[in-house]
Design brief:
Layout (H helix, E strand, L loop, with lengths): L2 E5 L6 H11 L7 H6 L2 E3 L2 E2 L3 H14 L6 E7 L2 E10 L4 E9 L8 H15 L4 E4 L6 H9 L17
Parallel strand pairs: 6-7
Antiparallel strand pairs: 1-4, 2-3, 4-5, 5-6
Helix pairs in contact: 1-3
Amino acid sequence: MSLIVSRCTETADAPALARFFVDHVTPDYISHGELTTGRATAPGVWAPDLEARVLAEMREAIAEPKHHRQVLTARKADELLAVCMVCRDERGIATIEDLVVAQSQRGQGVGRAVVEAVLAALAADGVVQVLLESGVANAGAHRFFEGLGFEMVSKVFYRRVGPS
């Protein structure tokens, strides 16, 4: 596969990346990160303005990477196949915040190629630990990440205590 994984440097690409995200995630994707950022309003429930929220995050990460945050894309020719957002800190710890692969490309090696490229770049940059989270119902992603050597280290619990 002639897949090209590269860092996105043009904020003009952000709308297409946000649309790709929305088109290729399901409610199973939702984890505590989506709840704390407002992307989701409850487990399994995306916020009505999800695309606008993701667009703002993408624009910010591309224009002014905070905390070494980067947006990467995987393309074959001009076709966008995956989007990945990664954040690393000065302690040598990185977080894969998002990995969204086109539904038609799942199981075709695209996600593996993206994660391997990300891990190689992080290791070359001195990162020693990589964390990620996945929605509790996202069993396919759990198998995928475990197959790449990731292991579960915690569970996150949720409870609403106030009005919605």
